[in-house]
Design brief:
The protein is globular. The two termini are 32 Å apart. With 359 residues, it is an alpha+beta fold. 29% of the residues lie in helices and 13% in strands. The protein folds into 2 domains: 2-154 and 300-358, no CATH class; 162-282, no CATH class. This is Heterokaryon incompatibility protein. It comes from Colletotrichum fioriniae PJ7.
Length: 359
């Protein structure tokens, strides 16, 4: 991390092409005596067009207000809630004077962002999940923010928080405490259906787990759904099945359902899958919803939290209801809800539109 910080400090060759948020992310691990300077200290590196909506520098503002200005600027510029995808609360969320919907630029973050430029472009050029556009983004002086959206489902099962060590080659579990990936395999491989699938077997559930664990991206940063050939997609799935086979073998366990390699259509490479999954899952949790969807969510998510689609939100978010409103815990990946997918059977599961008061 010290080397990365030094490199970012002295090598600014990519800065002219970086967006407002990308610059803040690049310097997120740096320190500042005045926490307002985690934003104000970087304004000189930003393009004039990115600062069009940013208010004048004002050190009389609280840190929370300055960080909220970043979100407001991002929303005005993009006409979307993409800025909220940078919220990272860690394993436990404890409310502070910074609202839950405001990214903490003073806190180091190693969590990969699920939303990328390709997803945002697809969302902008598509029909935005068939939901209304964002029409109002007006936080109150107390930091409360009312946003409209629809509920999708509730989290009913979730893993512990994962990290890169869970995907080391010799990482194992035991009969008493199975590796979280084996626990997930046991659930998926015994699930004889997956929501929206016409097939009554466990294959679709298993394939959806593979996509979920990598947030739909290969070790080479290619989107699985955009791979040129079916052979390439089958290779991705074979890599996952080989990874599970090896994990069972190393742990001295047998699959209670079926041998993973029995459904692999080609020879797999477990290392490729480990790279992609460790990158996506680090500091996140895998969950299952009441309807049976698999998702990759924030580390602070728990059973009972709600997956919602907010108007203007390119991807789903996980919210938690509290006494005075809702906490925004972070973004999440659920394959049928990603911007590239327009499925009326999935959208039919959306609840009625309602207002969520984020605090």
């Amino acid at each position: 991390m010290p080397f990365d910080n030094a490199h970012a400090m002295f090598d600014t060759s990519d800065v002219p092409e970086s967006t407002f948020l990308e610059i803040l992310i690049a310097f997120r691990d740096h320190q500042a005596t005045n926490l307002r300077d985690k934003v104000y200290g970087l304004l000189g590196l930003m393009r004039a067009e990115d600062l069009e909506f940013f208010p004048p520098v004002d050190y009389r503002k609280s840190v929370a207000e300055v960080y909220a200005d970043v979100v407001i600027t991002g929303v005005k510029g993009s006409k979307s809630l993409a800025s909220l995808c940078y919220v990272q609360h860690g394993i436990e969320y404890n409310q502070t004077d910074v609202p839950s919907w405001v990214p903490r630029w003073d806190v180091s973050g190693d969590v990969s962002t699920i939303l990328d430029s390709r997803s945002l472009t697809a969302w902008n050029e598509g029909d935005k999940h068939g939901l209304p556009d964002l029409t109002n983004f007006a936080p109150s002086s107390e930091g409360k923010l009312s946003l409209s959206g629809v509920r999708f489902d509730t989290i009913t099962w979730i893993t512990r928080a994962l990290d890169v060590l869970d995907f080391k080659e010799r990482s194992t579990g035991s009969v008493a405490s199975p590796h979280p990936m084996l626990d997930l395999w046991n659930r998926a491989s015994s699930n004889m259906s997956y929501p929206g699938s016409q097939f009554k077997d466990s294959l679709m559930a298993v394939l959806m787990v593979a996509l979920t664990l990598t947030a739909g991206v290969t070790d080479g940063y290619e989107r699985v759904e955009e791979l040129e050939s079916s052979d390439d997609r089958e290779q991705f799935h074979a890599d996952y099945l080989t990874y599970i086979h090896n994990l069972l073998e190393i742990s001295g366990l047998e699959s209670p359902t079926f041998e993973p390699l029995n459904i692999a259509l080609s020879d797999g490479n477990a290392s490729r899958f480990r790279v992609a999954a460790s990158r996506a899952c680090d500091q996140r949790r895998v969950f299952e919803t009441a309807a049976g969807f698999y998702g990759l969510g924030p580390a602070c998510a728990r059973e009972g939290d709600v997956v919602v689609m907010l108007y203007g939100g390119p991807i789903p978010f996980v919210l938690r209801e509290v006494d005075n409103g809702w906490w925004l815990l972070g973004d999440c990946f659920i394959d049928p809800l990603m911007p590239e997918t327009a499925d009326d059977t999935i959208r039919a599961r959306f609840g009625e539109g309602e207002a969520f008061m984020l605090v």
